[in-house]
Amino acid sequence: MPTHSHTQAVLDHYQRALTFCPQPAKIQERIAGLHWTLWDIPQAMEHYLQAHALNPQAQWHHWRLYFCLQRLAGRESPRLLEFCQRIVDLVKPNTHYDANRGFTPLLLSTAYRYLGKGDVATQGQAQRARTILHQSYRAILEPDYPELINHAWTERRNHPPNFLIIGVWKCGTTSLYHYLSQHPQILPTLAKELHYFTGVTHWQQGKTFADYLDYFPPIDNPNYQTGEATPGYIIQPNLAKYLRHWFPEIKIIILLRNPVKRAISNFYMRQSLSDPIFAQTLDGVTHIDLGKVDAIANQIYGDLETGVSWIQCLVKQPAIYPNDISLNLALHLAFSQYIRYLPQWFEQFPREQILVLRSEDLFQNTPATLQQIYNFLGLEHHPLPEYRNLNQRKYNAISPGLHQQLTQYFQPYNEKLEDYLGQKFNW
Protein backbone atom coordinates (compact mmCIF):
# COMPACT_ATOMS: atom_id res chain seq x y z
CA MET A 1 0.00 0.00 0.00
CA PRO A 2 1.25 3.51 -0.80
CA THR A 3 2.23 6.05 1.80
CA HIS A 4 1.10 9.68 1.80
CA SER A 5 4.25 10.67 -0.09
CA HIS A 6 3.51 7.95 -2.65
CA THR A 7 -0.02 9.31 -2.99
CA GLN A 8 1.29 12.80 -3.67
CA ALA A 9 3.74 11.39 -6.20
CA VAL A 10 0.87 9.72 -8.05
CA LEU A 11 -1.10 12.97 -8.04
CA ASP A 12 1.93 14.82 -9.40
CA HIS A 13 2.28 12.16 -12.10
CA TYR A 14 -1.34 12.63 -13.15
CA GLN A 15 -0.94 16.40 -13.23
CA ARG A 16 2.07 16.11 -15.53
CA ALA A 17 0.19 13.67 -17.74
CA LEU A 18 -2.48 16.31 -18.36
CA THR A 19 0.00 18.31 -20.44
CA PHE A 20 0.37 15.65 -23.14
CA CYS A 21 -2.42 13.10 -22.69
CA PRO A 22 -4.73 12.83 -25.74
CA GLN A 23 -7.66 12.09 -23.40
CA PRO A 24 -7.35 14.60 -20.54
CA ALA A 25 -10.87 13.80 -19.31
CA LYS A 26 -9.67 10.32 -18.36
CA ILE A 27 -6.80 11.78 -16.35
CA GLN A 28 -9.15 14.19 -14.59
CA GLU A 29 -11.35 11.21 -13.72
CA ARG A 30 -8.34 9.39 -12.26
CA ILE A 31 -7.37 12.44 -10.20
CA ALA A 32 -10.95 12.81 -9.01
CA GLY A 33 -11.09 9.13 -8.12
CA LEU A 34 -7.88 9.41 -6.15
CA HIS A 35 -9.26 12.30 -4.11
CA TRP A 36 -12.48 10.33 -3.67
CA THR A 37 -10.43 7.46 -2.27
CA LEU A 38 -8.82 9.86 0.20
CA TRP A 39 -12.24 11.37 1.12
CA ASP A 40 -11.07 14.78 -0.09
CA ILE A 41 -14.55 15.56 -1.40
CA PRO A 42 -13.97 19.19 -2.53
CA GLN A 43 -10.99 18.18 -4.65
CA ALA A 44 -12.86 15.15 -5.99
CA MET A 45 -15.71 17.40 -7.03
CA GLU A 46 -13.33 19.91 -8.59
CA HIS A 47 -11.81 17.30 -10.87
CA TYR A 48 -15.09 15.57 -11.71
CA LEU A 49 -16.38 18.95 -12.87
CA GLN A 50 -13.27 19.43 -14.99
CA ALA A 51 -13.66 15.92 -16.41
CA HIS A 52 -17.28 16.63 -17.26
CA ALA A 53 -16.37 19.90 -18.96
CA LEU A 54 -13.98 17.95 -21.18
CA ASN A 55 -16.41 15.09 -21.81
CA PRO A 56 -20.00 16.26 -21.22
CA GLN A 57 -21.45 13.05 -22.67
CA ALA A 58 -20.15 11.01 -19.73
CA GLN A 59 -23.37 10.78 -17.73
CA TRP A 60 -21.74 8.61 -15.05
CA HIS A 61 -20.01 11.73 -13.73
CA HIS A 62 -23.41 12.88 -12.53
CA TRP A 63 -23.85 10.24 -9.84
CA ARG A 64 -20.40 10.92 -8.42
CA LEU A 65 -21.13 14.67 -8.45
CA TYR A 66 -24.49 14.04 -6.78
CA PHE A 67 -22.90 12.01 -3.98
CA CYS A 68 -20.17 14.62 -3.58
CA LEU A 69 -22.79 17.35 -3.34
CA GLN A 70 -24.75 15.56 -0.63
CA ARG A 71 -21.58 14.93 1.34
CA LEU A 72 -20.50 18.56 1.08
CA ALA A 73 -23.92 19.67 2.28
CA GLY A 74 -23.72 17.31 5.25
CA ARG A 75 -20.34 18.77 6.19
CA GLU A 76 -21.59 22.36 5.61
CA SER A 77 -18.71 23.06 3.24
CA PRO A 78 -18.04 26.75 2.52
CA ARG A 79 -17.68 25.81 -1.16
CA LEU A 80 -21.13 24.24 -1.42
CA LEU A 81 -22.83 27.15 -3.21
CA GLU A 82 -19.85 27.67 -5.51
CA PHE A 83 -20.03 24.05 -6.65
CA CYS A 84 -23.82 24.23 -7.03
CA GLN A 85 -23.52 27.22 -9.35
CA ARG A 86 -20.84 25.50 -11.41
CA ILE A 87 -23.02 22.40 -11.71
CA VAL A 88 -26.05 24.27 -13.05
CA ASP A 89 -23.82 26.25 -15.43
CA LEU A 90 -22.03 23.16 -16.70
CA VAL A 91 -24.56 20.34 -16.67
CA LYS A 92 -27.80 22.03 -17.61
CA PRO A 93 -27.03 22.74 -21.31
CA ASN A 94 -26.15 19.08 -21.87
CA THR A 95 -29.22 17.59 -20.18
CA HIS A 96 -32.31 16.32 -21.99
CA TYR A 97 -34.92 15.94 -19.30
CA ASP A 98 -37.23 13.87 -21.50
CA ALA A 99 -34.53 11.24 -22.03
CA ASN A 100 -32.87 11.07 -18.63
CA ARG A 101 -33.80 8.96 -15.71
CA GLY A 102 -31.45 8.90 -12.79
CA PHE A 103 -28.83 11.10 -11.30
CA THR A 104 -28.78 13.94 -13.84
CA PRO A 105 -32.12 15.45 -12.75
CA LEU A 106 -31.31 14.66 -9.12
CA LEU A 107 -27.97 16.44 -9.42
CA LEU A 108 -29.42 19.53 -11.07
CA SER A 109 -32.45 19.81 -8.82
CA THR A 110 -30.32 19.41 -5.69
CA ALA A 111 -27.89 22.09 -6.88
CA TYR A 112 -30.76 24.50 -7.59
CA ARG A 113 -32.34 23.69 -4.24
CA TYR A 114 -29.19 24.57 -2.29
CA LEU A 115 -28.79 27.74 -4.33
CA GLY A 116 -32.39 28.60 -3.45
CA LYS A 117 -31.63 28.56 0.26
CA GLY A 118 -29.62 31.77 0.01
CA ASP A 119 -30.96 35.34 -0.12
CA VAL A 120 -34.35 36.40 -1.49
CA ALA A 121 -32.93 36.88 -4.99
CA THR A 122 -32.27 33.14 -5.26
CA GLN A 123 -35.62 31.88 -3.96
CA GLY A 124 -36.84 31.07 -7.48
CA GLN A 125 -34.19 28.36 -7.71
CA ALA A 126 -36.32 26.04 -5.55
CA GLN A 127 -39.08 26.16 -8.15
CA ARG A 128 -36.53 25.39 -10.87
CA ALA A 129 -35.44 22.36 -8.86
CA ARG A 130 -39.03 21.14 -8.67
CA THR A 131 -39.57 21.74 -12.38
CA ILE A 132 -36.58 19.57 -13.29
CA LEU A 133 -37.86 16.71 -11.17
CA HIS A 134 -41.39 17.02 -12.54
CA GLN A 135 -40.19 17.00 -16.14
CA SER A 136 -38.23 13.83 -15.49
CA TYR A 137 -41.05 12.05 -13.69
CA ARG A 138 -43.56 13.00 -16.38
CA ALA A 139 -41.28 11.54 -19.06
CA ILE A 140 -40.87 8.31 -17.09
CA LEU A 141 -44.49 7.80 -16.05
CA GLU A 142 -46.41 8.95 -19.10
CA PRO A 143 -45.78 5.87 -21.31
CA ASP A 144 -47.07 3.39 -18.70
CA TYR A 145 -49.34 5.54 -16.52
CA PRO A 146 -51.08 8.11 -18.76
CA GLU A 147 -54.20 8.10 -16.58
CA LEU A 148 -52.15 8.97 -13.51
CA ILE A 149 -50.57 11.88 -15.36
CA ASN A 150 -53.99 13.14 -16.43
CA HIS A 151 -55.90 12.64 -13.19
CA ALA A 152 -53.49 12.28 -10.26
CA TRP A 153 -50.63 14.67 -11.07
CA THR A 154 -49.96 17.25 -8.36
CA GLU A 155 -47.69 20.28 -8.33
CA ARG A 156 -46.64 19.68 -4.72
CA ARG A 157 -46.63 16.19 -3.30
CA ASN A 158 -47.89 16.42 0.28
CA HIS A 159 -48.12 12.79 1.39
CA PRO A 160 -45.10 10.79 2.56
CA PRO A 161 -43.40 7.84 0.89
CA ASN A 162 -44.81 4.47 1.88
CA PHE A 163 -41.60 2.62 2.57
CA LEU A 164 -37.85 2.98 3.04
CA ILE A 165 -35.21 0.31 2.51
CA ILE A 166 -32.56 1.49 4.95
CA GLY A 167 -29.84 -1.14 4.72
CA VAL A 168 -27.47 -2.62 4.72
CA TRP A 169 -24.78 -2.11 2.06
CA LYS A 170 -24.06 -5.22 -0.05
CA CYS A 171 -27.11 -7.03 1.27
CA GLY A 172 -29.21 -7.00 -1.90
CA THR A 173 -30.91 -3.61 -1.68
CA THR A 174 -30.28 -2.90 -5.37
CA SER A 175 -31.92 -6.14 -6.46
CA LEU A 176 -34.81 -5.69 -4.05
CA TYR A 177 -35.57 -2.17 -5.21
CA HIS A 178 -35.40 -3.35 -8.82
CA TYR A 179 -37.94 -6.09 -8.10
CA LEU A 180 -40.29 -3.76 -6.22
CA SER A 181 -40.08 -1.13 -8.96
CA GLN A 182 -41.65 -3.62 -11.37
CA HIS A 183 -44.81 -3.93 -9.30
CA PRO A 184 -47.61 -2.07 -11.11
CA GLN A 185 -48.62 -0.26 -7.91
CA ILE A 186 -45.13 0.95 -6.99
CA LEU A 187 -43.80 4.12 -8.59
CA PRO A 188 -39.98 4.18 -8.33
CA THR A 189 -37.88 7.25 -7.67
CA LEU A 190 -35.45 8.64 -10.25
CA ALA A 191 -32.66 6.70 -8.58
CA LYS A 192 -32.77 3.94 -6.01
CA GLU A 193 -30.67 5.86 -3.48
CA LEU A 194 -31.73 9.46 -2.83
CA HIS A 195 -29.19 10.02 -0.02
CA TYR A 196 -31.30 12.95 1.17
CA PHE A 197 -30.33 12.41 4.80
CA THR A 198 -26.74 11.34 4.13
CA GLY A 199 -24.40 13.40 6.28
CA VAL A 200 -27.12 15.07 8.36
CA THR A 201 -25.99 15.42 11.97
CA HIS A 202 -28.79 17.43 13.56
CA TRP A 203 -32.47 18.08 13.07
CA GLN A 204 -33.36 20.24 10.08
CA GLN A 205 -29.80 20.76 8.89
CA GLY A 206 -31.05 22.38 5.71
CA LYS A 207 -33.57 19.55 5.26
CA THR A 208 -37.34 19.98 5.11
CA PHE A 209 -40.36 17.74 4.81
CA ALA A 210 -41.50 19.46 1.60
CA ASP A 211 -38.07 19.30 -0.05
CA TYR A 212 -37.79 15.57 0.57
CA LEU A 213 -41.23 14.88 -0.87
CA ASP A 214 -40.25 16.68 -4.07
CA TYR A 215 -37.85 13.84 -4.84
CA PHE A 216 -40.74 11.36 -5.13
CA PRO A 217 -43.24 11.01 -8.00
CA PRO A 218 -45.76 13.91 -7.82
CA ILE A 219 -48.75 11.58 -7.93
CA ASP A 220 -51.70 11.86 -5.53
CA ASN A 221 -53.40 8.47 -5.61
CA PRO A 222 -53.60 6.20 -2.54
CA ASN A 223 -53.61 3.08 -4.73
CA TYR A 224 -49.97 3.66 -5.68
CA GLN A 225 -46.94 3.46 -3.41
CA THR A 226 -43.41 4.79 -3.58
CA GLY A 227 -40.23 4.65 -1.55
CA GLU A 228 -36.44 4.74 -1.79
CA ALA A 229 -33.48 2.59 -0.77
CA THR A 230 -30.43 4.30 0.74
CA PRO A 231 -28.45 1.65 2.65
CA GLY A 232 -26.51 4.09 4.81
CA TYR A 233 -29.65 5.31 6.55
CA ILE A 234 -29.60 2.38 8.96
CA ILE A 235 -26.56 3.68 10.84
CA GLN A 236 -27.31 7.40 10.53
CA PRO A 237 -27.52 8.73 14.12
CA ASN A 238 -30.92 10.07 15.24
CA LEU A 239 -32.45 9.50 11.81
CA ALA A 240 -35.06 7.08 13.14
CA LYS A 241 -36.31 9.76 15.53
CA TYR A 242 -36.52 12.37 12.79
CA LEU A 243 -38.30 10.07 10.37
CA ARG A 244 -40.74 9.00 13.08
CA HIS A 245 -41.57 12.70 13.53
CA TRP A 246 -42.04 13.26 9.80
CA PHE A 247 -43.50 9.91 8.72
CA PRO A 248 -45.01 8.09 11.72
CA GLU A 249 -46.71 5.43 9.56
CA ILE A 250 -43.88 4.66 7.10
CA LYS A 251 -42.83 1.03 6.61
CA ILE A 252 -39.14 0.17 7.15
CA ILE A 253 -37.45 -2.71 5.30
CA ILE A 254 -34.03 -3.99 6.39
CA LEU A 255 -31.92 -6.63 4.63
CA LEU A 256 -29.22 -8.37 6.67
CA ARG A 257 -26.62 -10.66 5.13
CA ASN A 258 -24.09 -13.02 6.65
CA PRO A 259 -21.83 -10.39 8.27
CA VAL A 260 -18.59 -11.96 7.03
CA LYS A 261 -19.76 -12.10 3.42
CA ARG A 262 -21.21 -8.60 3.63
CA ALA A 263 -17.97 -7.12 4.99
CA ILE A 264 -15.81 -8.82 2.36
CA SER A 265 -18.16 -7.74 -0.43
CA ASN A 266 -18.14 -4.17 0.91
CA PHE A 267 -14.34 -4.24 1.08
CA TYR A 268 -14.04 -5.20 -2.57
CA MET A 269 -16.70 -2.71 -3.64
CA ARG A 270 -14.62 -0.02 -1.97
CA GLN A 271 -11.58 -1.24 -3.89
CA SER A 272 -13.47 -1.00 -7.18
CA LEU A 273 -14.37 2.63 -6.47
CA SER A 274 -10.84 3.56 -5.48
CA ASP A 275 -7.92 4.54 -7.66
CA PRO A 276 -6.15 1.40 -8.95
CA ILE A 277 -2.94 2.48 -7.21
CA PHE A 278 -4.66 1.66 -3.91
CA ALA A 279 -6.05 -1.68 -5.01
CA GLN A 280 -5.90 -4.31 -2.27
CA THR A 281 -6.76 -7.96 -2.08
CA LEU A 282 -7.37 -10.43 0.71
CA ASP A 283 -5.64 -13.20 -1.22
CA GLY A 284 -3.23 -15.01 1.07
CA VAL A 285 -4.54 -13.33 4.25
CA THR A 286 -5.11 -16.05 6.86
CA HIS A 287 -5.86 -13.89 9.90
CA ILE A 288 -6.10 -10.26 10.97
CA ASP A 289 -5.56 -8.34 14.21
CA LEU A 290 -9.03 -8.22 15.76
CA GLY A 291 -7.82 -5.86 18.47
CA LYS A 292 -7.29 -3.21 15.81
CA VAL A 293 -10.71 -3.98 14.36
CA ASP A 294 -12.37 -3.54 17.75
CA ALA A 295 -10.57 -0.26 18.33
CA ILE A 296 -11.89 1.24 15.10
CA ALA A 297 -15.36 -0.30 15.50
CA ASN A 298 -15.66 1.14 19.00
CA GLN A 299 -14.45 4.53 17.83
CA ILE A 300 -17.01 4.58 15.01
CA TYR A 301 -19.84 3.45 17.27
CA GLY A 302 -18.84 6.01 19.90
CA ASP A 303 -18.85 8.78 17.30
CA LEU A 304 -22.27 7.72 16.03
CA GLU A 305 -23.59 7.71 19.59
CA THR A 306 -22.61 11.37 19.92
CA GLY A 307 -24.39 12.29 16.68
CA VAL A 308 -21.50 12.21 14.22
CA SER A 309 -22.81 11.19 10.79
CA TRP A 310 -21.56 8.00 9.16
CA ILE A 311 -20.00 10.10 6.40
CA GLN A 312 -18.00 12.00 9.00
CA CYS A 313 -16.97 8.68 10.52
CA LEU A 314 -15.58 7.64 7.17
CA VAL A 315 -13.78 10.92 6.70
CA LYS A 316 -12.20 10.63 10.15
CA GLN A 317 -10.71 7.25 9.23
CA PRO A 318 -7.63 7.35 7.00
CA ALA A 319 -8.52 6.16 3.53
CA ILE A 320 -5.45 3.93 3.52
CA TYR A 321 -3.36 2.26 6.19
CA PRO A 322 0.03 1.43 4.68
CA ASN A 323 0.71 -2.28 4.92
CA ASP A 324 -2.07 -2.99 7.44
CA ILE A 325 -4.90 -5.10 6.06
CA SER A 326 -6.49 -5.37 9.52
CA LEU A 327 -7.15 -1.65 9.66
CA ASN A 328 -8.23 -1.47 6.04
CA LEU A 329 -10.83 -4.19 6.64
CA ALA A 330 -11.95 -2.87 10.03
CA LEU A 331 -14.44 -0.31 8.75
CA HIS A 332 -16.36 -2.92 6.78
CA LEU A 333 -16.37 -5.34 9.70
CA ALA A 334 -17.68 -2.59 11.97
CA PHE A 335 -20.69 -1.99 9.74
CA SER A 336 -21.54 -5.72 9.92
CA GLN A 337 -22.16 -5.48 13.67
CA TYR A 338 -25.87 -5.06 13.05
CA ILE A 339 -27.01 -5.19 16.66
CA ARG A 340 -25.27 -1.88 17.28
CA TYR A 341 -27.36 0.00 14.72
CA LEU A 342 -30.80 -1.61 14.77
CA PRO A 343 -32.11 -0.55 18.20
CA GLN A 344 -32.67 3.13 17.30
CA TRP A 345 -35.25 2.01 14.73
CA PHE A 346 -37.14 -0.32 17.06
CA GLU A 347 -37.10 2.33 19.77
CA GLN A 348 -38.94 4.74 17.46
CA PHE A 349 -41.18 2.58 15.27
CA PRO A 350 -43.67 -0.16 16.22
CA ARG A 351 -42.47 -3.67 15.44
CA GLU A 352 -45.24 -4.14 12.87
CA GLN A 353 -43.79 -1.29 10.79
CA ILE A 354 -40.34 -2.88 10.46
CA LEU A 355 -39.56 -5.92 8.33
CA VAL A 356 -36.14 -7.52 8.82
CA LEU A 357 -35.17 -10.08 6.19
CA ARG A 358 -32.22 -12.36 5.56
CA SER A 359 -30.46 -11.50 2.32
CA GLU A 360 -29.93 -15.22 1.79
CA ASP A 361 -33.71 -15.70 1.60
CA LEU A 362 -33.99 -12.95 -0.99
CA PHE A 363 -31.21 -14.51 -3.07
CA GLN A 364 -32.29 -18.16 -2.73
CA ASN A 365 -36.09 -17.91 -2.61
CA THR A 366 -36.92 -14.62 -4.26
CA PRO A 367 -40.63 -15.15 -5.07
CA ALA A 368 -41.54 -16.17 -1.51
CA THR A 369 -39.49 -13.33 -0.01
CA LEU A 370 -41.15 -10.80 -2.31
CA GLN A 371 -44.56 -12.19 -1.33
CA GLN A 372 -43.63 -11.51 2.29
CA ILE A 373 -42.71 -7.94 1.39
CA TYR A 374 -45.89 -7.41 -0.65
CA ASN A 375 -47.93 -8.61 2.33
CA PHE A 376 -46.02 -6.21 4.56
CA LEU A 377 -46.78 -3.31 2.20
CA GLY A 378 -50.39 -4.33 1.67
CA LEU A 379 -49.93 -5.13 -2.02
CA GLU A 380 -51.07 -8.05 -4.13
CA HIS A 381 -48.47 -10.58 -5.23
CA HIS A 382 -46.87 -9.77 -8.59
CA PRO A 383 -44.67 -12.57 -10.00
CA LEU A 384 -41.82 -11.46 -12.25
CA PRO A 385 -40.59 -13.25 -15.37
CA GLU A 386 -37.06 -13.39 -13.94
CA TYR A 387 -35.21 -12.51 -10.75
CA ARG A 388 -31.71 -11.34 -11.57
CA ASN A 389 -29.29 -10.64 -8.75
CA LEU A 390 -28.02 -7.16 -9.58
CA ASN A 391 -24.81 -5.39 -8.60
CA GLN A 392 -22.82 -8.59 -8.14
CA ARG A 393 -19.07 -8.41 -8.02
CA LYS A 394 -16.59 -11.23 -8.60
CA TYR A 395 -13.64 -11.69 -6.29
CA ASN A 396 -11.65 -14.58 -4.86
CA ALA A 397 -12.94 -16.37 -1.77
CA ILE A 398 -11.09 -15.57 1.44
CA SER A 399 -8.88 -18.22 3.02
CA PRO A 400 -10.47 -20.85 5.30
CA GLY A 401 -8.43 -19.49 8.20
CA LEU A 402 -9.67 -15.93 7.79
CA HIS A 403 -13.24 -17.12 7.26
CA GLN A 404 -13.15 -19.14 10.48
CA GLN A 405 -11.63 -16.25 12.44
CA LEU A 406 -14.25 -13.76 11.24
CA THR A 407 -17.13 -16.21 11.73
CA GLN A 408 -16.08 -16.71 15.35
CA TYR A 409 -15.63 -12.95 15.75
CA PHE A 410 -19.21 -12.24 14.71
CA GLN A 411 -20.80 -15.08 16.69
CA PRO A 412 -21.58 -13.05 19.85
CA TYR A 413 -22.92 -10.15 17.78
CA ASN A 414 -25.15 -12.53 15.83
CA GLU A 415 -26.45 -14.18 19.00
CA LYS A 416 -27.38 -10.79 20.47
CA LEU A 417 -29.08 -9.87 17.20
CA GLU A 418 -31.16 -13.06 17.21
CA ASP A 419 -32.15 -12.53 20.85
CA TYR A 420 -33.09 -8.90 20.19
CA LEU A 421 -35.22 -9.63 17.12
CA GLY A 422 -36.51 -13.03 18.16
CA GLN A 423 -35.59 -14.58 14.82
CA LYS A 424 -32.88 -16.95 13.64
CA PHE A 425 -30.36 -16.06 10.95
CA ASN A 426 -28.22 -19.24 10.99
CA TRP A 427 -24.98 -17.53 10.08
Automatic annotation (TrEMBL):
Keywords: Glycoprotein, Plasmid, Transferase
Pfam families linked: Sulfotransfer_1
Gene3D superfamilies listed in its UniProt record: P-loop containing nucleotide triphosphate hydrolases, Tetratricopeptide repeat domain
Any one GO MF annotation of this record: sulfotransferase activity
Residue span, Sulfotransferase domain: 161-381
Transmembrane segments: none
Keyword presence, Oxidoreductase: no
Entry keyword Transferase: yes
PANTHER family, sorted: BIFUNCTIONAL HEPARAN SULFATE N-DEACETYLASE_N-SULFOTRANSFERASE, HEPARAN SULFATE SULFOTRANSFERASE
Name of the protein in its database record: Sulfotransferase family protein
Organism: Oscillatoria acuminata PCC 6304
